[in-house]
């Protein structure tokens, strides 16, 4: 709702009230409409201030309402009525003015912002555009290039930038409402014609066509198939080329297409899923309410390879005091130099002072004795990690949390190397760790809820999106990646090429296909794991057929490449060729194609044409199938966990909502039918066998993804 009051004698104060962000729900819109009418009809009221309760102006339209039947007064006429008012209306912006919140402010005649406020039109990240006049008013106010930037990226800007762009008229460090009321008193009798943004001409550049062509190319390149950024450019173009009313019509038309699109549903699902995973819950019911994090003042990072350095940078940037341990002197010196450079560059970008002094470097593990939490990031080798955990358990003060950055190894086994297994959790960062948002917080059966709470809390402080998951081989992300990569190898055997398979996945929206990704991360990593598992035996040493392991189909293609020293980008050759070791531009490699032909001939395989649909179905449905197994096993507490892990850690296109949401969009019955089809064709590939949870969901009528948790609970209680 919105509360009306009269302050300072003649100022009508309208306060939006809808905690926590004063979203423009039907009740709030109704409250604004009623309050504006009241203010305009009250002769005692000479000017009006609109503000939000509890230090937040407005977080925009109520996203929860988008899924249902919209009721209450619509936004556009409400904002028009404010702009058309014959008494000055001032927006007092504290906290956030986002989306419809900023559009409401743009309908006001003046805008005063608190210095800490953030403003923006983030609709594009929800698959929409600012359709309450935002695409028409903002370019008229600040010009086309700046408006295009804000509307197509959805970025939030500071009050200082908003002032510089001309979005706000004044910035204050004091009470914004008081400043706005004083301002409103001063402008009470002033004429308003020059303050109605919809009447402004849109500032024109000399070559509009070139400007929009460039903007369109830019969004198409970065959007990876997302339609909203394209619609945003089209709407702003209407502002620049058409009268306001026609521009509004175009905005409405484009919004109608976006609003009902699957992409908008997927992106809005991601918005809520991201917030849902923050409210983690362990199978025993532990969550924030029951388990408070322990304060962490001092942290240690053990091992300063690529991952350790990234983690160290992310920690130092939070302002925490960090002890960095690396036993090899050379490696320590190199790491120190590299980390300082990373911190300096990061600080320069953000316009802050680098936090180099937060770090103490040491070669001695005993220097971690006084820290509150340790993150181990040594080489991915169980014997080495076992030793480190035994040492940590001996040298750390009682109660120190011991975390491992392993990407797949058994957390419980590592916990068993220590005197206090309840203090051990996984903190699985993604490379580069100071950039990537995702953090898998992995609990073993003995991890205490407080250890999980502390790791989740520290992750949040580091700017990460933490997802708490159970312990199993590869946890959630890497466990699902295994069948996906396996299918890609099989497709190569059957006639595919790395180029065609990658193209299908990139057109789906991944930033890079499976083979480019594998070249980037290094083929030797998977090879080492397969060797450890006894899979990647050299064909001469092996007693079994090179294409079968334990009665299951196996592709030794990756192993054969590694045997040739082709480890990907770092060696200049992998599934592609590169100009030199370390180069990033993947080029098609004729050697690889003749190698594949030779391999097929050797194994009596006849290449067939594999279309894009088969690539997507086999690679993605098998990954989704493993996601259902993970849900069935209780490793992830809901589909949101899996989807957020894939969107933030593995490049799954956000506008497709994550693998589990995508399965729902495709139709669970269809996913099941295609898996059955492929499993029939490849009975020796167990990953293609549909998971029983998927069968049960289909049998229970394929309920929407936000209700799966209930079905899963029932299924698990019956198991
Ligand atoms: C005709 C169409 C016109 C306009 C279209 C729009 O306006 S679309 C909406 C555009 N607005 C946004 O995209 C803003 C979304 N919100 C945020 O970015 C952040 O929530 C915000 C406002 C910066 C606050 O961040 P903070 O970290 O402080 O809180 P958090 O994100 O955890 O949110 C707290 C709870 O509020 C819920 N929520 C936030 N915004 C909205 C919203 N616009 N509608 C509905 N609900 C919203 C959020 O889900 C959290 O809920 P909880 O149950 O506590 O998890």
Characterization of the model:
It comes from Echeneis naucrates. Pathway: Lipid metabolism; fatty acid beta-oxidation. Its main location: other. Monomer. 48% of the residues are buried. With 719 residues, this protein is α/β, with parallel strands linked by helices. Helix content is 47%, strand content 12%. A hairpin with an 8-residue loop joins strand 15 and strand 16. An 8-stranded mixed sheet has the order 12-11-10-13-14-15-16-17, sandwiched between helices. The longest helix is centred in the middle third of the chain and has 22 residues. Bound molecules: ligand LFKQWZQV. Ligand LFKQWZQV binds next to strand 5 and helix 11.
Write a compact overview of the structure shown.
With 719 residues, this protein is an alpha/beta fold. 47% of the residues lie in helices and 12% in strands. β3, α2 and β4 (89-93) form a beta-alpha-beta unit.
Beta content comes to 5-15%
Q: Assign the CATH topology of the largest domain.
A: 2-enoyl-CoA Hydratase, Chain A, domain 1
Number of helices: 28
- Specify the helix fraction band: 40-55%
Mean pLDDT: 95
Shape descriptor reads globular
What is the domain total for the residues?
Answer: 3
Structural class: alpha/beta
Strand order of the largest sheet: 12-11-10-13-14-15-16-17
Pfam families: 3HCDH, 3HCDH_N, ECH_1
Subunit structure: Monomer.
Protein name: Peroxisomal bifunctional enzyme
Catalytic activity: (3E)-hexenoyl-CoA = (2E)-hexenoyl-CoA; (3S)-hydroxydecanoyl-CoA = (2E)-decenoyl-CoA + H2O; (3E)-decenoyl-CoA = (2E)-decenoyl-CoA; (2S,3S)-3-hydroxy-2-methylbutanoyl-CoA = (2E)-2-methylbut-2-enoyl-CoA + H2O
């Amino acid at each position: 709702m919105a509360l009306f009051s009269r302050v300072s004698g003649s100022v009508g104060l309208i306060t939006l009230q809808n905690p926590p962000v004063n979203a423009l729900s039907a009740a709030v819109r109704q409250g604004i409409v009623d309050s504006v009418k009241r203010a305009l009809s009250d002769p005692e009221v000479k000017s009006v201030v609109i503000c939000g309760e509890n230090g937040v102006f407005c977080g925009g339209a109520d996203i929860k309402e988008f899924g249902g039947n919209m009721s209450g007064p619509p936004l556009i006429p409400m904002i028009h009525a404010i702009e058309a008012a014959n008494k000055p209306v001032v927006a007092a912006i504290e906290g956030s003015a986002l989306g419809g919140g900023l559009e409401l402010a743009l309908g006001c005649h003046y805008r005063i912002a608190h210095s800490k406020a953030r403003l923006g039109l983030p609709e594009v990240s929800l698959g929409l555009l600012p359709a309450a006049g935002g695409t028409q008013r903002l370019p008229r106010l600040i010009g086309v290039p700046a408006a295009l930037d804000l509307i197509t990226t959805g970025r939030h800007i500071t009050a200082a930038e908003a002032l510089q762009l001309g979005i706000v008229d004044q910035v204050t460090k004091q009470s914004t409402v008081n400043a706005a009321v004083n301002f409103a008193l001063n402008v009470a009798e002033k004429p308003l014609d020059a303050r109605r943004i919809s009447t402004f001409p849109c500032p024109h550049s000399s070559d509009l066509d070139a400007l929009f062509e460039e903007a369109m190319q830019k969004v198409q390149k970065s959007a990876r198939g997302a339609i909203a950024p394209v619609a945003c450019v089209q709407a702003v173009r209407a502002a620049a080329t058409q009268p306001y009313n026609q521009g509004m019509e175009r905005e409405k038309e484009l919004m109608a297409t976006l609003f009902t699109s699957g992409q908008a549903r997927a992106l809005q699902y991601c918005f809520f899923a991201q917030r849902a995973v923050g409210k983690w819950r362990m199978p025993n019911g532990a969550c924030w309410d029951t388990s408070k994090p322990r304060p962490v003042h001092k942290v240690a990072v053990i091992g300063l390879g690529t991952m350790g350095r990234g983690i160290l940078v992310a920690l130092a940037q939070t302002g925490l005091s960090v002890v960095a341990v690396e036993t090899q002197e050379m490696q320590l010196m190199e790491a120190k130099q590299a980390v300082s450079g990373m911190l300096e560059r990061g600080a320069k970008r953000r316009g802050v002072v680098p936090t180099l002094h937060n770090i103490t470097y040491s070669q001695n593990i005993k220097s971690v004795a006084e820290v509150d939490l340790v993150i181990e990031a040594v080489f991915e080798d169980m014997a080495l990690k076992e030793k480190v955990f035994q040492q940590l358990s001996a040298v750390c003060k009682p109660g120190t949390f011991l975390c491992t950055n392993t990407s797949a190894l058994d957390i419980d086994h590592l916990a068993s190397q220590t005197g206090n297994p309840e203090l051990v959790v996984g903190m699985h960062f993604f490379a580069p760790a100071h950039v990537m948002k995702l953090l898998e917080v992995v609990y073993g059966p003995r991890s205490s809820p407080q250890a999980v709470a502390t790791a989740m809390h520290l992750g949040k402080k580091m700017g990460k999106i933490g997802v708490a998951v159970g312990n199993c081989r590869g946890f959630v992300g890497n466990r699902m990646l295994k069948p996906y990569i396996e299918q890609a190898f099989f497709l190569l055997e059957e006639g595919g090429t790395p180029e065609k398979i990658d193209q299908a996945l990139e057109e789906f929206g991944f930033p890079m296909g499976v083979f480019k990704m594998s070249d980037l991360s290094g083929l030797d990593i998977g090879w080492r794991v397969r060797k450890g598992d006894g899979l990647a035996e050299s064909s001469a040493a092996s007693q079994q057929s090179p294409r079968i392991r334990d009665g299951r189909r196996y592709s030794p293609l990756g192993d054969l490449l590694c045997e040739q020293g082709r480890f990907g980008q770092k060696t200049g050759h992998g599934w592609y060729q590169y100009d030199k070791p370390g180069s990033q531009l993947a080029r098609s490699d004729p050697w690889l194609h003749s190698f594949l032909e030779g391999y097929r001939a050797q194994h009596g395989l006849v290449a067939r044409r594999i279309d894009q649909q088969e690539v997507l179905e086999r690679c993605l449905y098998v990954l989704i199938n493993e996601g259902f197994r993970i849900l069935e096993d209780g490793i992830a507490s809901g589909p949101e966990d899996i989807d957020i892990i894939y969107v933030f850690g593995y490049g799954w296109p956000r506008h497709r909502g994550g693998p589990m949401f995508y399965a729902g969009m495709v139709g669970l019955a269809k996913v099941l039918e295609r898996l059955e089809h492929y499993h029939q064709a490849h009975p020796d590939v167990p990953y293609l066998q549909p998971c029983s949870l998927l069968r049960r969901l289909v049998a229970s009528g394929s309920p929407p993804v936000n209700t799966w948790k209930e079905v899963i609970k029932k299924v698990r209680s019956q198991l």
